[in-house]
Amino acid sequence: MIRKIITTGDGSKTIQIEDWNEQYHSIHGAVNEAYHVFIDKGFSYLTNEAISILEIGFGTGLNALITLIEAEKNSRLVDYTGIEAYPITVEEVSQLDYIETLKADTFREAFSEMHRSTWESKIRLTPHFSFKKQKKNFLDISESNLYNLIYFDAFGARVQPELWTELIFEKMYNALTENGVLVTYSAKGSVRRAMQSVGFVVERLPGPPGKREMLRARKVSG
Fold this sequence. Notes:
The chain is an alpha/beta fold. The chain has one domain: Vaccinia Virus protein VP39 (Rossmann fold), CATH 3.40.50.150. 30% of the residues lie in helices and 29% in strands. The chain contains seven helices and eleven strands. Strands 6-7-5-4-8-9-11-10 form an eight-stranded mixed sheet, sandwiched between helices. Strands 1-2-3 form a three-stranded antiparallel sheet, with helices on one face.
């Protein structure tokens, strides 16, 4: 598939898959979307001093980078796992230029190490941030009661509907701890219903620029 770097509405960049007319981040603003959906409605919503995060779709590493920045800013211990089946290239990481966009030169080496690091090896990138990436299909996720927060950032249901099913969300539900939270940019009714069918309590929230709504799902027993 042909991939190219494009500039989004807030001036930050993302990757577009031309065959699908699909982007790794919102065309209305990659950085704005990442902060709104995953930091504001996920990371900042939880109050745990130590937090274990699973990202479904590590992709460009933008969500991991902004979480690293926020973890250091707020002195929160983060254990971060990013899953990606089709990693991008080092050249694409360079062209995206997220360090300059975020004015985050302090984290340049840490961000580079995320992409250079060996699959399945946990590394400590900063005093507050541990990181591991896994190269595997989302269907192969089998963890149980491990994560406090899931960033669900898979490609949209229009192009990969198999990633937005009850089967996948049951795996997400099982992977979360009690009162764990999943956040995603999607607000499709079919997605919300799939989440609810496996036990999630789901709420609609205001979406990032260009989207009216997004979803936050919580694992609650009883």
